[in-house]
Amino acid sequence: MTSQIVVIGGGLAGSEAAWQVAKRGIPVTLHEMRPTANTPAHTSDKLAELVCSNSFGSADILNASGILKEEMRRLDSLIVKTADRCRVPAGSALAVDREKFSGHITETLEAHPHVTVMREEITDIPTDLISIIASGPLTSDRLANSIKDLTLARHLAFFDAISPIVDAETIEYGTVFRASRYGKGGADYINCPMEKDEYDRFYDALLASEKVIPKDFENIQYFEGCIPVEVMAERGRQTLLFGPMKPVGLVNPRTNGTAHAVVQLRQEDKYGSSYNMVGFQTKLTYPEQRRVFRMIPGLEKAEFLRYGSIHRNTFINAPALMRNTLQVKMNGSIFFAGQLTGVEGYLDSAATGLIAGINAARGLAGQSLVTPPETTAHGSLITHITQSDPRHFQPMNTNFGLFPPLPVKVREKERKRRMIGERALEDLEKWMTRYNVS
Using CA atoms, how far apart are residues 21 and 376, in angstroms rounded to an integer? Predict the structure, then answer.
């Protein structure tokens, strides 16, 4: 069998991409380096091995993750179909028996007449075939060097340095003020002012907070641009006042003065529905992030659409490099999928593999390439990774802050989320019919 499409990486994204190609009757070769070469995190040679949690998150359509799952079911996702089959009790979450899950994925792909699974390490990106690169956060050094060459090096990162993102509707606007430092660029930032006693309480809580312990293979060497906020705080009580919490150049119009400290929030999406806590990359546990960061004036009731983190994760600066079809801008025969694209989470990674697989197959068949509507979970996620500001790009998981606003204002949260989910599924069905995607 001569394959015309190759997939590099047998994780969730690569497995899903190979399935989407093969089910369309096109030969595909799936390259997985295990067990010929291993990673520090994997323990088996199975495809789609779950290296961390066995949970895929909420299955409730009132959760953004639940909407994504339902969309993937309708798009005949191998990953979600297998997760449903291997489900174990976990309340409203979709959790699986990890051994059965990866075992079934492996058996399904190895038995498929259009799939060839090659157990070898790929170090060079093929240029004479359509390629889907889905090698994941633990991409081998030699393949990473090839990706460096493709992405001009400066567009490749090896560690996430993620700041929390806040739901704009949960900010206390009577406390904060809008302004840019020294008035440059307009009132682009939301500023949370702190007096000295507030800052001292926050600083003490930050130092005493519980932190995430790095995994054995995460030998993270911080550079000045991604130092965790709590590590900066350890350098001295005044350090943050000369870093992410510096108050200079920011005049509060309510007091006509300068606060002791200021936390700045930068708009994260084009709709203004979510804001990034500038410079607040952190290793605090999620409960501690909620507790400590809600001590910041204006964020007392904040809901976090994404928590901060710093961890081992190879990913590209997708907005600078990728089209919304998941092709590389400078070479349309190469696609990226999975965490390499700057998505976070099992299902988010698999979802990009799904779309990359569909488009690779459509391209080879001479059909137009497609992108799901922005109102869907798939489309909103792809919009984030391909249309964000490349200067501030950070990995993201599916959340309600990525969806376009509803045409009418809905205050009741559950009703609003249900309406967003219903709209997403309706628009997905219309898109599938229009482009004959099945």
Answer: 22
List residues bridging with 8 in a β-sheet. Answer: 31, 133
Q: How far is CA 396 from CA 181, 309, 345, in A?
A: 27, 11, 9
Residue count of the chain, please give it: 438
Q: Which CATH architecture has domain 5-161+312-434?
A: 3-Layer(bba) Sandwich (3.50)
DSSP, res 435: T
Task: Give CA–CA dist 213/309, Å, rounded.
Answer: 11
Q: How do residues 290-316 score in pLDDT, each as one tens digit?
A: 999 999 999 999 999 989 877 666 788
Strands 87-88 and 93-96: antiparallel
pLDDT score, position 160: 59
- Non-local (6+) Cβ contacts of 101 within 8 A are 48, 50, 54, 82, 83, 86
Residue 396: beta bridge partners?
Answer: 343
Task: Identify whether the C-beta of residue 394 lies closer than 8 Å to the C-beta of residue 41.
Answer: no
Low-confidence ranges of the chain (pLDDT < 70): 1-3, 37-43, 52-53, 153-161, 214-226, 311-313
Which two structure tokens, joined as six digits, stand for 315? 């990913």
Residue 57 and residue 32 in contact, taking contact as beta carbons nearer than 8 Å:
no
Q: Where are the domains of the chain?
A: 5-161+312-434, 165-307
Contacts 24+ apart (CB under 8 A), 104-111: 105/15, 105/46, 105/47, 105/48, 105/78, 105/79, 106/46, 106/47, 106/48, 108/19, 108/78, 108/82, 109/15, 109/18, 109/19, 109/22, 109/30, 109/47, 109/78
3-state secondary structure (DSSP) of residue 213? coil
Beta carbons within 8 Å of 137's beta carbon, 6+ residues apart: 312, 313, 314, 315, 339, 340
The residue among 133, 104, 100 whose CA lies nearest residue 32 is 133
> Looking at residue 151, what is its pLDDT?
77
| Per-residue CA distances from 147 to 7, 35, 55, 386 (Å) | 14, 22, 30, 18
CB of 437 closer than 8 Å to CB of 368: no
pLDDT tens digit sequence for 183-215: 877 788 999 999 999 999 999 999 999 988 766
- Topology of domain 165-307, CATH: Elongation Factor Tu (Ef-tu); domain 3 (2.40.30)
Other C-beta atoms closer than 10 Å to the C-beta of 174 total: 8
**Which residues fall within 8 angstroms of residue 242, CB to CB, at 6 or more apart?**
none
